[in-house]
TrEMBL record:
Signal sequence, start to end: none
Subcellular location, record wording: Cell membrane
UniProt main location, coarse: membrane
Membrane topology field: Multi-pass membrane protein
PANTHER family on file: CALCIUM-TRANSPORTING ATPASE
InterPro entries in alphabetical order: ATPase_P-typ_cation-transptr_C, ATPase_P-typ_cyto_dom_N, ATPase_P-typ_P_site, ATPase_P-typ_TM_dom_sf, HAD-like_sf, HAD_sf, P-type_ATPase_IIIB, P_typ_ATPase
GO CC, alphabetical: plasma membrane
Keyword ATP-binding (UniProt): yes
UniProt entry tagged with the keyword Protease: no
Name of the protein this chain belongs to: Magnesium ABC transporter ATPase
Organism: Listeria booriae
Length: 681
C-alpha cells in the first residue's frame, strides 16, 4: 500500500511537467501572432484537451439531494418494517381474525408510505424551475434546485462573474505620476495605426478615446511603417509622418520598454533615465499592479526620413509615461456576495489569473483577500493539508483544471455542498465534480453539457435569487415530509394503543385509506406556499437524524389527542361495543383527518400560525375544503357505504375543543423544541 508521501509525490509528478514546461500549446490552441515550432507528444484522448473532454463526460457523483433522499427513504422504510408487523401481530392475537388483521396492517403500511412524495417533490421542483426560468436561470437537472438551496460553498471564477469581463483604461500618467493627455494621445495613435491583431488593451485605448471624443483629432498623421508585436520584444512600434517630422511611437511591457529608453520626459524636460529613476518607476508600476492594474509604457523618438524601419531602430527612445488597465468589478457583485454570505454561502474564487489581480478584485467585492494559495503550492500539498487550507482561504490562483477539480472534491469530502460556476472548456471537469455545476448560455457546448444549471446572464445577483428559490422549494418538500411522517407515526402509535384495548378495530382499512388520500390531496397545494425569511437564511439539506427527532417529538402529540378522542367516544358517546363501533370509527375518522390537515399550518412555520405567519391562499383554501368534506362524509351515502355513520350534534363542541387543544399543545411543544434544538423545519 502506498504511503501518503509517495502518493503526494506521484500526484506532483503528474502535473509538474505542465507547470515547468509552460508555455505549452495544447491541442485546439489558436496561434494569433508570432511563429515557432511545436513537437506533438500525444494525440486524441491522451492530450490535455482530450482528457478534459473525457472528464467532462463522466457521470456526476451522487449529489447532496441524491444522498438525502436515499437516507430519508431508508428511515421511513425501516420505520414501516418495524411498526407494521407489530400492528399485525397485536390485532391478530387479540382479535383472532388474522385475515382482517393482515388487511388492516397493509392499510397501515399504505398510510405510513408517503405515496404522494414523488408528486409533491416533482411539482415543487417543476414550479421552482418555472420561477427560476423567469429570473434567467435554466434548470437542466431538477435535483439541482434542492442542491442550490443546500449549497454552503460557492466556488466561482473571477472574469465575467466578479468583473465586467471588459478591460478598461483606468490611468494614463506621465513619468511623475500625473494624469497626462499626451500619453493617451500617443497610445491611441499606436493602437489606431497598427495593422496587426489588436489586443484587448488596444480596444480599451481606442474605446476610451472615442468616449471623450478626441479620436478624430489624432488620426490625421500618415503612417510610414510599423514594427509588429512579438513575444520576444513584447512591444509594438508605429512610425508616423507628422508635418515635417517623423515620429516613432512604441508601447509595450515595462521591462522591455526600459531596455530601449535612454531618456525620459519629466514635465517637458528631457533627462537621462538612470538606474535610480528606473527603480523608482518600477516601484510606481508595482503599486499599480497591486491595485489590480496591468501596466504598459509609452515611448517616442524623432527619426530622420527613411523608407523602412526595423527592430534596431527601437533604441535611445524617450519614455513618456504609463497606462494602467483593469477589468473592473461589477457594481452588482458586492451586494450579491454580501447577500450570499448573509444566507450562509461561503464564496471562494478559483482562477487561472495571477493572485495580485484576484486579491484586488476580491477586496473590492467583499471576499476575504488576506490569504491566497497558488496552483504551484497546491501540487506539494497532501489532501488533508489542502482540505484545511480550503477552510481558511478564499482565493486560489494560477490553477489548472485538475487543481480546480481536486479542490472541489476535497471541499465536498469535508461535508460541504459545493457549487461551481465556470464557463470555459477547462472548467468542465470541475463542473462535474460539484454538487451544483453552473455555467452560462454563452459557454462552450461541452461546458454546458457538464452543468446542471445554466444562467442566461453571468451574474451573482441572479444566482443569489436562485439560491433563495432553491431553499423555498426544498422547504416546501420538507414540510410535506415532516408533517406526513410525524402524523403517520402518531396514527400508528394510536392504532397500537387502540388495538390493545378495544374489542374492535379503531378504524376500518377503507377509512385509513380514504383519510390518507384526502390528506394527501390537501398537500398538493404546498408548492404554492412560501417559507419564512428565517428559514431562507441558511443552507438546508436532508438530515435523517433531524427527521427522526422531529417525528418522535411531534408524533406523540397527535397520539395524545387521538387517545383523548377514544376516551370521549367510549365514555361520553358510549361507543364501546361492537354494535357501536361505526360511531367510534366515524368520530376518530373526523378528528384524525382534521388534526392531520390542520397541523400543516402549525408545522409550516416557526412562528404563531394565522397570526405571525399565514400560509399561501391555495394552501388555506385546500385545507378548508378537505376539512369541510371530512366533516360532511359521515352524513353522506358515500360515508354510509364504507361503514361511517352520522355524528350527533353534541359531538361537534367536543371536536372544536380537541382541535383548539391540539393546536395549543403543538405550539407549546414547537416552542420548546426550537428552544432546545435551535431548529424546526
Amino acid at each position: 500500500m502506498l504511503s501518503n508521501g509517495l502518493l503526494g509525490f506521484l500526484k506532483f509528478l503528474s502535473v509538474v511537467n505542465l507547470h515547468f514546461a509552460l508555455p505549452t500549446p495544447f491541442m485546439g490552441t489558436d496561434v494569433i501572432s508570432g511563429q515557432g515550432k511545436a513537437i506533438i507528444l500525444q494525440t486524441g484522448d491522451k492530450t490535455v484537451f482530450g482528457s478534459l473532454s473525457q472528464e467532462a463526460l463522466t457521470k456526476r457523483e451522487a449529489t447532496s439531494f441524491d444522498k438525502g433522499v436515499k437516507s430519508i427513504s431508508k428511515l421511513l422504510m425501516y420505520f414501516m418494517l418495524v411498526m407494521v408487523p407489530i400492528v399485525f401481530l397485536i390485532n391478530g392475537i387479540l382479535k383472532g381474525n388474522w385475515t382482517e388483521a393482515l388487511l388492516f396492517a397493509v392499510a397501515v403500511a399504505v398510510g405510513l408510505t408517503p405515496e404522494m412524495l414523488p408528486m409533491i417533490v416533482n411539482t415543487n421542483l417543476a414550479k421552482g424551475a418555472i420561477r427560476m426560468a423567469k429570473k434567467k436561470v435554466i434548470i437542466k437537472e431538477l435535483s439541482a434546485i434542492q442542491n442550490l438551496g443546500a449549497m454552503t460553498v460557492l466556488c466561482t471564477d473571477k472574469t465575467g462573474t466578479l468583473t465586467k469581463d471588459k478591460v478598461e483604461l483606468i490611468e494614463h500618467i506621465d513619468t511623475t505620476g500625473k494624469t497626462c493627455n499626451k500619453v493617451l494621445a500617443l497610445a491611441f495613435q499606436n493602437s489606431h495605426f497598427q495593422t496587426g491583431w489588436k489586443n484587448i488593451m488596444d480596444h480599451a485605448i481606442i474605446s476610451h478615446m472615442q468616449k471623450i471624443g478626441d479620436d478624430k483629432r489624432y488620426t490625421q498623421p500618415e503612417k510610414i511603417d510599423e514594427i509588429p508585436f512579438d513575444f520576444a520584444r513584447r512591444r509594438l512600434s508605429v512610425i508616423l509622418q507628422k508635418r515635417d517630422s517623423v515620429q516613432m511611437i512604441t508601447k509595450g511591457a515595462i521591462t522591455e520598454m526600459f531596455s530601449i529608453c535612454s531618456t525620459l520626459d519629466e514635465n517637458g524636460a528631457i533627462i537621462e533615465l538612470t538606474d535610480t529613476i528606473k527603480a523608482q518607476l518600477h516601484e510606481k508600476c508595482e503599486q499599480m499592479n497591486r491595485q489590480g492594474m496591468r501596466v504598459i509604457a509609452i515611448a517616442t523618438k524623432s527619426k530622420a526620413n527613411q523608407e523602412t524601419f526595423s527592430v534596431q531602430d527601437e533604441a535611445n527612445m524617450t519614455l513618456i509615461g504609463f497606462l494602467g488597465f483593469l477589468d473592473p468589478a461589477k457594481p452588482s457583485a458586492k451586494p450579491a456576495i454580501e447577500s450570499l454570505t448573509n444566507h450562509g454561502v461561503d464564496v471562494k474564487v478559483l482562477t487561472g489569473d495571477n493572485e495580485i489581480v484576484a486579491q484586488t478584485i476580491c477586496k473590492q467585492v467583499g471576499i476575504p483577500a488576506d490569504k491566497f494559495l497558488l496552483g504551484s503550492d497546491i501540487d506539494f500539498m497532501y489532501d488533508d493539508e489542502l482540505t484545511e487550507a480550503t477552510r481558511t482561504h478564499h482565493i486560489f490562483a494560477k490553477l489548472t483544471p485538475t487543481q480546480k477539480s481536486r479542490i472541489i472534491q476535497l471541499i465536498r469530502e469535508d461535508g460541504q455542498t459545493v457549487g461551481f460556476m465556470g464557463d470555459g472548456i477547462n472548467d468542465a471537469p470541475a463542473l462535474r465534480k460539484a454538487d451544483v455545476g453552473i455555467s452560462v448560455d454563452t459557454a462552450a457546448d461541452i461546458t454546458k453539457d457538464a452543468s446542471s444549471i445554466i444562467l442566461l446572464e453571468k451574474s451573482l445577483t441572479i444566482l443569489n435569487d436562485a439560491v433563495i428559490e432553491g431553499r423555498n422549494v426544498f422547504g416546501n418538500i420538507l414540510k410535506y415530509m415532516k408533517m406526513t411522517a410525524s402524523s403517520n407515526f402518531g396514527n400508528v402509535f394510536s392504532v397500537l394503543v387502540a388495538s390493545a384495548f378495544l374489542p374492535f378495530l379503531p378504524m376500518l382499512s377503507i377509512h385509513l385509506l380514504l383519510q390518507n388520500l384526502m390528506y394527501d390531496l390537501s398537500q398538493l397545494t404546498l408548492p404554492w406556499d412560501k417559507m419564512d425569511e428565517s428559514f431562507l437564511k441558511k443552507p438546508r439539506k436532508w438530515d435523517p437524524k433531524n427527521m427522526l427527532r422531529f417525528i418522535v417529538t411531534i408524533g406523540p402529540v397527535s397520539s395524545i389527542f387521538d387517545i383523548l378522542t377514544f376516551a370521549i367516544m367510549w365514555f361520553v358517546f358510549s361507543a364501546n361495543t361492537v354494535a357501536e363501533q361505526a360511531l367510534f370509527q366515524s368520530g376518530w375518522f373526523v378528528v384524525g383527518l382534521l388534526t392531520q390537515t390542520l397541523v400543516v399550518h402549525m408545522i409550516r412555520t416557526e412562528k404563531i400560525p394565522f397570526i405571525e405567519s399565514r400560509a399561501a391562499a391555495p394552501v388555506m383554501i385546500s385545507t378548508l375544503i378537505v376539512m369541510g368534506i371530512g366533516i360532511i362524509i359521515p352524513f353522506t351515502s358515500l360515508g354510509h357505504s364504507i361503514g361511517l355513520v352520522s355524528l350527533p350534534l353534541s359531538y361537534f363542541p367536543w371536536l372544536i375543543a380537541i382541535l383548539v387543544g391540539y393546536m395549543i399543545t403543538v405550539q407549546i411543544v414547537k416552542t420548546a423544541y426550537i428552544k432546545k434544538f435551535r431548529d424546526w423545519i
